[in-house]
Amino acid sequence: MRLARMNSQVGTHLLVLPCFWGIMLGTPGFVPSVTTMALFSAGALGTRSAGCIINDFADRDIDKHVDRTKARPLTTGEITPTQAGVFLSGLMAMNFGILFQLPPQSIALGFAVTPLVFAYPYAKRTFKYPQVVLGTTFSSGIMIGYAASAMGHAVNWQVCLPYYAGAIMWTTYYDTIYAMQDREFDKKLGLNSTAILVENYPKLALAALSAGTVGMFAVGGAAAGLGMYY
Protein backbone atom coordinates (compact mmCIF):
# COMPACT_ATOMS: atom_id res chain seq x y z
CA MET A 1 0.00 0.00 0.00
CA ARG A 2 2.88 2.38 0.71
CA LEU A 3 4.48 1.47 -2.61
CA ALA A 4 1.25 2.54 -4.35
CA ARG A 5 1.00 5.70 -2.16
CA MET A 6 -2.40 4.66 -0.84
CA ASN A 7 -1.73 6.81 2.22
CA SER A 8 -1.70 9.97 0.08
CA GLN A 9 -4.23 10.46 -2.71
CA VAL A 10 -3.34 13.99 -3.84
CA GLY A 11 -1.80 12.54 -7.00
CA THR A 12 -5.01 10.66 -7.80
CA HIS A 13 -7.03 13.86 -7.41
CA LEU A 14 -4.67 15.72 -9.73
CA LEU A 15 -4.93 12.93 -12.31
CA VAL A 16 -8.72 12.60 -12.23
CA LEU A 17 -9.50 16.33 -12.46
CA PRO A 18 -8.55 16.66 -16.16
CA CYS A 19 -10.61 13.53 -16.82
CA PHE A 20 -13.63 15.18 -15.21
CA TRP A 21 -13.04 18.36 -17.21
CA GLY A 22 -13.07 16.32 -20.42
CA ILE A 23 -16.18 14.43 -19.36
CA MET A 24 -18.03 17.68 -18.63
CA LEU A 25 -16.92 19.25 -21.92
CA GLY A 26 -18.02 16.21 -23.92
CA THR A 27 -21.35 15.62 -22.17
CA PRO A 28 -24.24 16.72 -24.44
CA GLY A 29 -26.38 17.84 -21.48
CA PHE A 30 -25.60 19.28 -18.08
CA VAL A 31 -25.38 16.04 -16.09
CA PRO A 32 -22.49 13.66 -16.84
CA SER A 33 -22.79 9.91 -16.59
CA VAL A 34 -22.18 8.71 -13.03
CA THR A 35 -20.91 5.41 -14.41
CA THR A 36 -18.36 7.16 -16.62
CA MET A 37 -17.12 9.30 -13.74
CA ALA A 38 -16.86 6.22 -11.50
CA LEU A 39 -14.83 4.36 -14.15
CA PHE A 40 -12.44 7.29 -14.51
CA SER A 41 -12.12 7.63 -10.73
CA ALA A 42 -11.14 3.97 -10.41
CA GLY A 43 -8.86 4.27 -13.43
CA ALA A 44 -7.13 7.32 -11.98
CA LEU A 45 -6.48 5.47 -8.72
CA GLY A 46 -5.06 2.45 -10.53
CA THR A 47 -3.01 4.44 -13.04
CA ARG A 48 -1.51 6.75 -10.44
CA SER A 49 -0.63 3.74 -8.25
CA ALA A 50 1.02 2.03 -11.22
CA GLY A 51 2.94 5.21 -12.01
CA CYS A 52 4.27 5.35 -8.46
CA ILE A 53 5.58 1.79 -8.74
CA ILE A 54 7.27 2.50 -12.07
CA ASN A 55 8.78 5.67 -10.62
CA ASP A 56 10.09 3.91 -7.50
CA PHE A 57 11.56 1.09 -9.58
CA ALA A 58 13.35 3.55 -11.86
CA ASP A 59 14.63 5.60 -8.89
CA ARG A 60 15.40 2.83 -6.41
CA ASP A 61 19.15 3.58 -6.52
CA ILE A 62 18.60 7.35 -6.52
CA ASP A 63 16.02 7.57 -3.74
CA LYS A 64 18.48 6.34 -1.13
CA HIS A 65 20.37 9.65 -1.48
CA VAL A 66 17.31 11.85 -0.93
CA ASP A 67 15.94 12.45 2.57
CA ARG A 68 12.33 12.55 1.41
CA THR A 69 12.48 9.21 -0.44
CA LYS A 70 15.14 7.08 1.26
CA ALA A 71 12.55 5.06 3.23
CA ARG A 72 10.53 3.93 0.20
CA PRO A 73 9.92 0.14 0.16
CA LEU A 74 11.89 -0.63 -3.02
CA THR A 75 14.82 1.50 -1.88
CA THR A 76 15.09 -0.18 1.52
CA GLY A 77 14.61 -3.67 0.09
CA GLU A 78 11.38 -4.19 2.03
CA ILE A 79 9.83 -5.14 -1.33
CA THR A 80 11.79 -6.80 -4.14
CA PRO A 81 11.63 -5.62 -7.76
CA THR A 82 9.93 -8.92 -8.66
CA GLN A 83 7.21 -8.39 -6.07
CA ALA A 84 6.71 -4.84 -7.32
CA GLY A 85 6.50 -6.15 -10.89
CA VAL A 86 3.78 -8.65 -9.98
CA PHE A 87 1.80 -5.91 -8.22
CA LEU A 88 2.28 -3.57 -11.20
CA SER A 89 1.04 -6.26 -13.60
CA GLY A 90 -2.14 -6.65 -11.55
CA LEU A 91 -2.74 -2.90 -11.51
CA MET A 92 -2.17 -2.60 -15.25
CA ALA A 93 -4.58 -5.48 -15.90
CA MET A 94 -7.20 -3.63 -13.83
CA ASN A 95 -6.49 -0.37 -15.66
CA PHE A 96 -6.88 -1.93 -19.09
CA GLY A 97 -10.01 -3.72 -17.90
CA ILE A 98 -11.50 -0.31 -17.08
CA LEU A 99 -10.23 1.20 -20.33
CA PHE A 100 -11.91 -1.51 -22.42
CA GLN A 101 -15.29 -0.50 -20.98
CA LEU A 102 -14.97 2.89 -22.70
CA PRO A 103 -15.74 3.78 -26.35
CA PRO A 104 -13.18 2.86 -29.07
CA GLN A 105 -11.78 6.40 -29.37
CA SER A 106 -11.09 6.51 -25.63
CA ILE A 107 -9.38 3.13 -25.85
CA ALA A 108 -7.15 4.33 -28.69
CA LEU A 109 -6.20 7.48 -26.80
CA GLY A 110 -5.53 5.44 -23.66
CA PHE A 111 -3.14 3.17 -25.52
CA ALA A 112 -1.45 6.18 -27.11
CA VAL A 113 -0.61 7.73 -23.73
CA THR A 114 0.42 4.49 -21.96
CA PRO A 115 4.09 4.68 -23.09
CA LEU A 116 4.36 8.08 -21.42
CA VAL A 117 3.43 6.53 -18.07
CA PHE A 118 6.52 4.34 -18.35
CA ALA A 119 8.72 7.06 -19.88
CA TYR A 120 8.12 9.83 -17.34
CA PRO A 121 10.25 8.40 -14.48
CA TYR A 122 13.26 8.38 -16.80
CA ALA A 123 12.66 11.86 -18.26
CA LYS A 124 14.61 13.68 -15.53
CA ARG A 125 17.75 11.85 -16.60
CA THR A 126 17.74 13.11 -20.19
CA PHE A 127 15.21 15.95 -20.60
CA LYS A 128 15.50 19.47 -19.21
CA TYR A 129 11.76 19.78 -18.60
CA PRO A 130 10.57 16.53 -16.97
CA GLN A 131 7.57 18.32 -15.44
CA VAL A 132 6.29 18.96 -18.97
CA VAL A 133 6.42 15.21 -19.64
CA LEU A 134 4.37 14.66 -16.49
CA GLY A 135 1.89 17.29 -17.68
CA THR A 136 1.60 15.64 -21.08
CA THR A 137 0.78 12.36 -19.33
CA PHE A 138 -1.51 13.61 -16.55
CA SER A 139 -3.50 15.95 -18.79
CA SER A 140 -4.39 13.38 -21.45
CA GLY A 141 -7.52 12.53 -19.48
CA ILE A 142 -9.13 15.60 -21.03
CA MET A 143 -9.27 13.95 -24.45
CA ILE A 144 -10.01 10.47 -23.11
CA GLY A 145 -12.82 11.80 -20.92
CA TYR A 146 -14.25 13.87 -23.76
CA ALA A 147 -14.30 10.87 -26.07
CA ALA A 148 -15.96 8.74 -23.37
CA SER A 149 -18.86 11.13 -22.86
CA ALA A 150 -19.40 12.49 -26.39
CA MET A 151 -21.95 9.82 -27.31
CA GLY A 152 -19.96 8.47 -30.26
CA HIS A 153 -19.02 11.88 -31.65
CA ALA A 154 -15.38 12.60 -32.51
CA VAL A 155 -13.22 14.56 -30.10
CA ASN A 156 -13.56 18.30 -30.73
CA TRP A 157 -9.88 19.22 -30.93
CA GLN A 158 -10.65 22.96 -31.04
CA VAL A 159 -11.99 22.56 -27.51
CA CYS A 160 -9.71 19.86 -26.14
CA LEU A 161 -6.30 21.02 -27.37
CA PRO A 162 -6.42 24.43 -25.61
CA TYR A 163 -7.51 22.70 -22.40
CA TYR A 164 -4.78 20.12 -22.87
CA ALA A 165 -2.15 22.85 -23.29
CA GLY A 166 -3.50 24.70 -20.27
CA ALA A 167 -3.50 21.56 -18.16
CA ILE A 168 0.11 20.82 -19.15
CA MET A 169 1.09 24.27 -17.90
CA TRP A 170 -1.00 23.77 -14.74
CA THR A 171 0.77 20.45 -14.04
CA THR A 172 4.17 22.01 -14.74
CA TYR A 173 3.25 24.80 -12.31
CA TYR A 174 2.38 22.61 -9.33
CA ASP A 175 5.06 20.00 -9.97
CA THR A 176 7.74 22.70 -10.20
CA ILE A 177 6.72 23.81 -6.72
CA TYR A 178 6.78 20.19 -5.54
CA ALA A 179 10.24 19.65 -7.08
CA MET A 180 11.73 22.60 -5.22
CA GLN A 181 12.09 20.48 -2.08
CA ASP A 182 14.45 18.12 -3.94
CA ARG A 183 16.30 20.77 -5.95
CA GLU A 184 19.66 20.51 -4.16
CA PHE A 185 19.60 16.71 -4.22
CA ASP A 186 18.77 16.74 -7.94
CA LYS A 187 21.74 19.02 -8.61
CA LYS A 188 24.12 16.69 -6.78
CA LEU A 189 22.77 13.67 -8.63
CA GLY A 190 22.88 15.37 -12.04
CA LEU A 191 19.13 15.17 -12.59
CA ASN A 192 16.97 17.65 -14.48
CA SER A 193 14.07 19.65 -13.06
CA THR A 194 12.21 22.82 -13.94
CA ALA A 195 12.74 23.81 -10.29
CA ILE A 196 16.46 24.01 -11.09
CA LEU A 197 15.90 25.89 -14.35
CA VAL A 198 13.80 28.63 -12.75
CA GLU A 199 15.55 28.84 -9.36
CA ASN A 200 16.68 32.43 -10.02
CA TYR A 201 13.22 33.67 -11.05
CA PRO A 202 10.63 31.25 -9.62
CA LYS A 203 7.82 33.77 -9.09
CA LEU A 204 8.05 35.07 -12.65
CA ALA A 205 8.09 31.55 -14.10
CA LEU A 206 5.16 30.40 -11.99
CA ALA A 207 3.18 33.55 -12.78
CA ALA A 208 3.75 32.96 -16.51
CA LEU A 209 2.57 29.35 -16.19
CA SER A 210 -0.51 30.50 -14.26
CA ALA A 211 -1.34 33.13 -16.87
CA GLY A 212 -0.86 30.60 -19.66
CA THR A 213 -3.14 28.11 -17.91
CA VAL A 214 -5.95 30.64 -17.48
CA GLY A 215 -5.47 31.89 -21.04
CA MET A 216 -5.69 28.43 -22.57
CA PHE A 217 -8.73 27.53 -20.49
CA ALA A 218 -10.37 30.74 -21.71
CA VAL A 219 -9.62 29.85 -25.34
CA GLY A 220 -10.99 26.34 -24.84
CA GLY A 221 -14.07 27.67 -23.08
CA ALA A 222 -14.75 30.07 -25.92
CA ALA A 223 -14.45 27.24 -28.45
CA ALA A 224 -16.89 25.20 -26.35
CA GLY A 225 -19.36 28.09 -26.27
CA LEU A 226 -19.39 28.28 -22.47
CA GLY A 227 -20.26 32.00 -22.45
CA MET A 228 -19.09 35.10 -20.63
CA TYR A 229 -19.90 33.81 -17.13
CA TYR A 230 -17.30 31.09 -17.63
How would you describe this structure to a colleague?
The chain is mainly α and 230 residues long. The protein has one domain (10-223): Tetracycline Repressor, domain 2 (Orthogonal Bundle). 70% of the residues lie in helices and 0% in strands. The chain has helices at residues 10-26, 34-58, 73-76, 81-99, 104-126, 130-138, 141-149, 157-179, 183-189, 194-197, 202-223. Helix 1 (10-26) packs antiparallel against helix 2 and helix 8 (157-179) runs antiparallel to helix 11 (202-223). The longest helix is centred in the N-terminal third of the chain and has 25 residues, at 34-58. The relative contact order is 0.13. The mean pLDDT is 94.
Number of domains: 1
Shape, please? flat
Strand content: under 5%
Classify the oligomer. single chain
The mean pLDDT is 94
Helix proportion of residues, in percent?
over 70%
> What's the tally of helices?
11
In the CATH classification, which architecture applies? Orthogonal Bundle
